[in-house]
Specification:
By secondary structure, the chain is mostly helical. Helices cover 76% and strands 0% of the residues. α3 (34-61) packs across α8 (173-218), α4 packs across α8 (173-218) and α6 runs antiparallel to α8 (173-218). It is elongated.
Length: 314
């Protein structure tokens, strides 16, 4: 039976991470090279500076509760993405080890049925990736074109509130800043979607391996050509590999998930307050509702698949 390539199933996810500077070549961590410089530009120069300007805006509007809430519920999400990226980079060696182990012999399906089971699990991840990408992308796109939809672009209003050390209401500074915010949001969007999706892929992979292990244990006596005792030993080794994989995965994403829940709670509270101030059927209100659904979907996927992993390992 041909070797099952699990890493190939998440190749698009890895490619997107590579595009935003979060995936060094091969199985290595960051080294002094051009890609590391590119990663610094994207993570610090583009996303980091964008978060800095947004955070500075809070310092100027903190006395206005409505303006403060409007600034916080976007800034919190964007800052979280930068924090996620930092933890992602910090744990790159662990992550590369985990991804590399996905094609270990112990994790290889033992039958066509197990190939189908593991394949279905990873195909379901592809569906979730597409759904998650669509929800967040549509929400971000509407947010970026909100000034155009509401006509506030005529008043030189930017998609996101931020403080800049120059006058953004004059041309061409307004157009340049608008473009800069769009680029920053796209990078932040790609980062958060693909970091979350990779964590989701690891969870689903653990679920798939647990299913395959259970199937192997159920059919110990089916194959008369192979010693049953040897198959039991193989199952024990498989179980240990799953535990090791799960521990390494948890070490990689535990802080990221903690940050996600803290951030999402803050954002949801701020968004609910914002919705109480606008007509929910207006353009602004509908976009805020979409934003709320996007934030809730981030928590939802972690809760759902985290619970599935818990059920499988019991």
């Amino acid at each position: 039976m041909d070797k099952f390539d699990s890493r190939q199933k998440i190749s698009v996810n890895i490619l997107m991470l590579k595009l935003v500077g979060l995936w060094p070549e091969k199985h290595e961590s960051y080294k002094p090279n051009l890609y590391t410089i590119y990663a610094f530009i994207t993570v610090v120069g583009i996303m980091g500076s964008h978060n800095f300007f947004q955070t500075m805006d809070i310092c100027f509007v903190y006395k206005d509760l409505e303006a403060l809430a409007a600034s916080i519920f976007i800034t919190t999400t964007d800052v979280l993405v930068s924090v996620k990226s930092c933890f992602f980079i910090q744990n790159m060696k662990i992550l590369k080890k985990v991804i590399l182990s996905m094609n270990d012999d112990a994790f290889q399906p033992k039958s066509k049925k197990q190939v189908e089971m593991l394949g279905n699990s990873l195909n379901f991840w592809k569906f979730m990736y597409t759904w998650y990408f669509s929800v967040l992308s549509i929400t971000s796109a509407f947010w970026l074109i909100l000034p155009v939809l509401t006509g506030s672009v005529q008043r030189k209003q930017l998609p996101l509130d931020a403080w800049y050390f120059y006058d953004t209401t004059t041309s061409p500074l307004y157009e340049i800043t608008y473009f800069y915010q769009c680029v920053a949001i796209i990078f932040l969007l790609v980062c958060t979607i693909n970091i979350d999706s990779l964590i989701l892929a690891l969870m689903i992979y653990i679920i798939g391996q647990c299913d395959n292990l259970c199937d192997s244990l159920k059919h110990l006596e089916v194959d008369e050509k192979q010693n049953v005792h040897k198959r039991i030993i193989d199952c024990i080794k498989h179980h240990k590999k799953i535990l090791s994989f799960a521990q390494d995965s948890n070490q990689f994403f535990d802080k990221i998930i903690l940050g996600q829940f803290v951030s999402s709670t803050t954002v949801l509270a701020s968004t609910m307050f914002q919705l109480s101030l606008v007509n929910p059927f207006s353009t602004d209100g509908l976009i805020k509702i979409m934003y709320t659904l996007a934030v809730m979907s981030q928590i939802f996927i972690y809760c759902w698949f985290g619970n599935e992993v818990e059920l499988k390992v019991r």
